[in-house]
Amino acid sequence: MNILDTIKAQKLKEVANLKAQFSTSFLEEQPLFNSATHSLRKAIESSVTGGIIAEFKRKSPAKGNINLDANVVEVTQGYANAAVSGLSVLTDVDFFGARTNDFELARKNNTIPMLRKDFMVDEYQIIQSKAMGADVILLIAKILNKKQMQSYINLAHELGMEVFLETQNEAEILDNLDLNFDLIGINNRNLNSFEVSVENSIKLAQLLPKSSNKIAESGINSLETIQLLQANGFHGFLIGEYFMKEENPAEKCRNLIQKLL
Fold first, then answer.
1. Cα 191 from Cα 101, distance rounded (Å)
2. Which residue of 90, 110, 175, 249 is surrounded by the most CB atoms within 10 Å?
3. Where do the H-state alpha helices sit in the chain?
4. d(CA 7, CA 94)
5. Do 200 and 206 touch, CB atoms closer than 8 A?
6. Which bin fits 25, alpha (ψ -120 to 50), beta or left (φ > 0)?
7. What's the number of domains the chain is made of?
């Protein structure tokens, strides 16, 4: 069993426990459930600061502890002040070290688009995401079948959220091009071996229509890397560890964006 299989199995148990505690009716009664959403796609399309999606992440299976004690409000507000296009906030506790109120605090203190970064394996999580105030949900092609993805996309759109589809290889792109996702990410990290290669994004980007909102993920750690990816048709860049490993993630983010101007 690889790490994704392990995470998916744990996530299914987690969702079952949540369903037993909180009904979907309860989620739909939460104050943020009917709140207006902010478009990450439009923010990236109109960005003059590089289309950066800055991530708040405490740890990961690939890198272990990254910044366990980071202050989510300080970091995400700092990212927003640096003029990022959007925020990505991990909500997985077991494998990524999220605190249960990380997303809530980030949402309460920021008005820019926010992606809920987690492993969606059940429609319940889509409804939960809207109740949390998410603008965008992540769907990982490697752990979902096409029927599930289309169902989740339809539900997310009905609730006013956008969908970020994460892919990692040629089959995941070609098999799902006809889905009506809003953003498509190519992950440079092999989720089985954890090896990172930016060449993966460059190679796979050629399979996508020019009209696709292409986002590169993982291994983005320099101005030169971003410029190379931009030259190959990428519009946005999801960056987490490169910022979060620093004592002041927001300052690292701000310095990178200033170089992009």
1. 27
2. 249
3. 3-21, 24-28, 40-45, 72-81, 93-96, 102-108, 123-132, 146-158, 170-174, 199-205, 223-231, 241-244, 249-260
4. 9
5. no
6. alpha
7. 1
Q: Of the candidates 150, 197, 141, 143, which has an alpha carbon nearest to the alpha carbon of residue 170?
A: 141
pLDDT in tens, the chain (261 residues): 688 999 999 999 999 999 999 999 999 999 999 999 999 999 999 999 999 999 999 999 999 999 999 999 999 999 999 999 999 999 999 999 999 999 999 999 999 999 999 999 999 999 999 999 999 999 999 999 999 999 999 999 999 999 999 999 999 999 999 999 999 999 998 877 778 889 999 999 999 998 999 999 999 999 999 999 999 999 999 999 999 999 999 999 999 999 998
Q: What is the CATH number of the domain that holds 164?
A: 3.20.20.70
CA 150 to chain centre: 18
Please state, in angstroms and rounded to a whole number, the distance separating the CA atoms of residues 141 and 175: 10
Measured distance between the N- and C-terminal CA atoms of the chain, rounded to whole angstroms: 44
Decide if 245 contacts 59 (C-beta within 8 A).
no
Region of 243 please: left (phi>0), alpha (psi -120 to 50) or beta.
Answer: alpha
Q: Which domain holds residue 101?
A: 3-260
d(CA 237, CA 216): 5
Give CA separation, 206 vs 23, 40, 41, 164, 203, in Å.
43, 23, 20, 19, 6
> Residue for token digits 């701000």?
254
Count the neighbouring beta carbons within 10 Å of the beta carbon of residue 20. 8
- Cα–Cα distance, 133 to 115 (Å, whole number): 10
Angle CA 41–72–236, to nearest 5: 25
CA–CA dist 33, 133 (Å, integer): 7
